[in-house]
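Handout for the seminar on molecular recognition.
Each group receives one record of this type.
Step one: identify the two inputs.
Step two: read the structure output and locate the region that could contact tryptophan.
Step three: write two sentences on what you found, then compare them with the reference statements printed after the record.
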Amino acid sequence: MGSIRRTAVSLTVLLAVLACSPSNGSAAPTSARPAAGDAGAPGIGDADFPLDGNGGYDVAHYGLRLDYDPRKRHLNGAAAIQARATQRLSQFNLDLSGFDIGGVSVDDREATYSRSGDELTVIPAAPLAEGDRFTVKITYSGTPQPVKNATNLGTYGWIPTSDGAFVACEPNGARTWFPANDHPADKARFDFEITVPRGLTALANGELTGKPETSGGKTTFTWRERHPMVTYLATATLGRFELRQGKTAGGLRNLVAVDPEFRSSLDRVYTTTGAITDYWSTVFGAYPFSSTGGVVDNFPTGYALENQTKPMYGGFDPGESIIAHELAHQWFGNSLSIKRWRDLWLNEGFATYAEWLWSEHTGKGRAQETFDTTYARGADDPIWSYPPGRARPTDLFNESIYTRGAMTLHALRVAIGDPAFFRLLKEWNAQHRYEHVSTAQFIALAEKVSGKQLDKLFDAWLFQPRRPSLSS
Ligand code: TRP
Ligand code: ZN
C-alpha cells in the first residue's frame, strides 16, 4: 500500500481528530459534514467492555501479512480486512494497540485516520452505504506490547519470548498484533502469511496452505483458518519448534508443536490430543474445524488457551485433563461463541465439566465425586458468593466461572438424567455451530430437550450469591 494519510478531512472529522489528539497532520475541511449518526460506534455494544469491538460493520475476513524479527522485537504488518457495513458509515473504528501506521485505504482509496487509545478511526474517502462490502487495508509497524492486566490473568496478547513470540489473546489482546474488531461478537475467517528468520517456525490457526518458502534468510508460513473464528483465538506463535503431524484415528489432521525444551512431551501430547479430539466428537458431535493439534511453548504463563485448532500450553507439560479442557473449547467457545463476556461460563463451565467427563471416561472418578468434593467446601468459599451466570469484567476468569459453572451442568445432568443431558450437549452444538450463544438460549434448550421446568435450578446455580441447596 503506497498511500499515506489524506490531508483533507471534514469539519466533524477535524473536531473529532482534535478532540482525541490525533496522529494526523494538518487538516482542512473540504467535504460536506456527515450526519452525526453516520459514525460507527467505538464499541460493539458489550457494556462490560464498552470500547471493545466496534459498531457499524461485520468483518468477514482478515488477511494478515506479518514479518517479525525476534531479535529486534519488531513487527511489520499489513492487514486487509473484508467487511460489510451494517449502517451508513462516514467513519468506523478498529481496535489497535500501539504501532506506527504506514497507511490506511478503503477499497484501495487512501483514507484518513486518527487514533485515540486503542481506537483507530478510519474515514473513507466517501461514506459507505448500508450493506456495502468493503476492504480496509492497514500497514503498521513497531514493537508489539502485550496487555498487562492483573485482574484478567496477567499478561496476554503478543508476548515476546527468547526465540520468538507467544501469542495468546483472550479476552482482548488481538489488537496487540493486528487491527481488529476485537470482541467475540464478530467472527471472521483468517489467512496468515508470517515471515520469520530461517530456522524458526510460525504457527497460526487452521492449516498450512503450502510448503513454507525460504529466501534471503527468511521463511514464510501461510496458514488458513477456513471456519469463522473470534479474534481472541487467533495466534501467530513463533520460535523454535519440533513438530509432529499426522491424522487422528478418526481421520482428522493433527499437528502438535513443542518448544525444544518440551521435546519429551511431543509424542504424548500428539497422541492424547488425537484421542481426546476423537472422543469429544462422539460426545459433543462432529468436530467443527479442519484439523486439531496443540502448541507447547516455553513461555511460563502456567495457563493454556484454546486457540482455534491449536490450543496453546504455556510453559508446562500438559496433562490429559487440561488437554481435554482446551479441546472441549473447540466446541464450547470456539464453534459456539459468546456474544457478551458476561456469559463466559458457557465456555469455561463447559470446558471444566469436560475435564470431569474425561475422568469419568478414563475410569479416574465419576463427575458426581468431583461435584461432591467441591460442594463440600465451606459455605463461605468464594465460589458461593460469585454467581457464575454473570462474569464480572474485572474478574472474568474467577474460579466460580469454571468450577461452579461445571457444577451447574452436573446439577442439570442429575435433574434431567443422562439421556436428556447428552442429547442436549449434542443438540446445543448442532443448533449453533459457528454461531453465537447466550445463557438464555441454553436454558430454553435444556427445558425443551428435557421437557422439564428448570428456571429454579439455573437461577440457584447461576445467579444467586450463595451455595445452592441440593434439593432444588
Ligand atoms: N481460556 C483459558 C482457559 O481456560 C484461560 C485464559 C484466558 C488464558 N485468557 C488467557 C490463557 C490468556 C492464556 C492467555 O483455558
Ligand atoms: Zn478454559
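Reference statements: The chain is about 25% helix and 30% strand. The chain has a mean pLDDT of 93.
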